[in-house]
Amino acid sequence: MDFGYPPVAFYFKLSFGGVSGLVDASFKEVSGISMEMDTEEISEGGNNYFKHRVPTSVKYSNLVLKRGLVPRASTLISWCEDTFSGGLSTYIRPKTIVVSLLNANGLPLKSWNFVDAWPVKWSASDLNSMNNEVLIETLEFSYSYFEAVKVI
After folding, report:
1. How many angstroms separate the CA atoms of 89 and 53, rounded?
2. pTM of this prediction?
3. Which of 70, 81, 68 is nearest to 122 (CA)?
4. Fewer C-beta neighbours within 10 Å, C or N terminus of the chain?
């Protein structure tokens, strides 16, 4: 079976673990699948030519999802609104977000689990009477870490 190489980046799906009901998970764009190693610089006494750079921890970008605004009731948006309106006195209910890159047959080529994700930002694109564009909502999530899922 030919999966094509390199794979195309426009055929993907999302799922949200722990979100019940019909989840509207059709998004036009996913970004923020990245990690980087933080470093710390240490000066060596008496040596002014360089500083030692040592690794400290891994830093993850926020996961950013974009789609056309969903005007109807949405379980996903309800989860976001509950998180935002709860303030610091309400427990944040993290979920696992799974992003899967699909082949031409709709089967996963590669998947990533974003563990303990929770919403940190919601925004809508600008309203402009001079443009004929779809209103885009952007959801941004923080998470503990992500892991690649082995696909058979």
Report:
1. 40
2. 0.80
3. 81
4. C
**What's the Rg (C-alpha) of the chain?**
20
Q: Kindly give, in sequence order, each residue whose CB lies less than 8 Å from that of residue 94, ignoring residues fewer than 6 positions away.
A: 116, 117, 118, 143, 144
Identify the CATH number of the domain defined by range 12-149.
2.30.110.20
Question: In Å, how far from its chain's centre is CA 101?
Answer: 13
Where do we find the tokens 């690649």? 148
Q: Give the rounded distance of the alpha carbon of 22 from its chain centre.
A: 20
pLDDT of res. 23: 57
Q: What is the pLDDT of residues 50-77, one digit of tens each?
A: 888 999 999 999 999 999 887 777 888 8
